[in-house]
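Q:
My hope is that you can spare some time for a protein that puzzles me. I hope you can help me see how the letters and the tokens relate. Thank you; the sequence and its tokens follow:
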Amino acid sequence: MGEVIRFISKSERERARLIREARANYERIFPSGGSGQAETGSSGRNADQVSSEP
């Protein structure tokens, strides 16, 4: 009953989808040899860079 429902705009959902796709493509091209630290550290930054460029 005390739940808060957050509105997520269409553009925000689309941005999140594109970031997920970019991360998946990056991982497919540059597999992370099993290193958990490299996977979470570098792939997040690169996906953001991909989605922010025009």
Remarks:
- The mean pLDDT is 77.
- The chain has two helices and no strands.
- The first helix runs from residue 10 to 29.
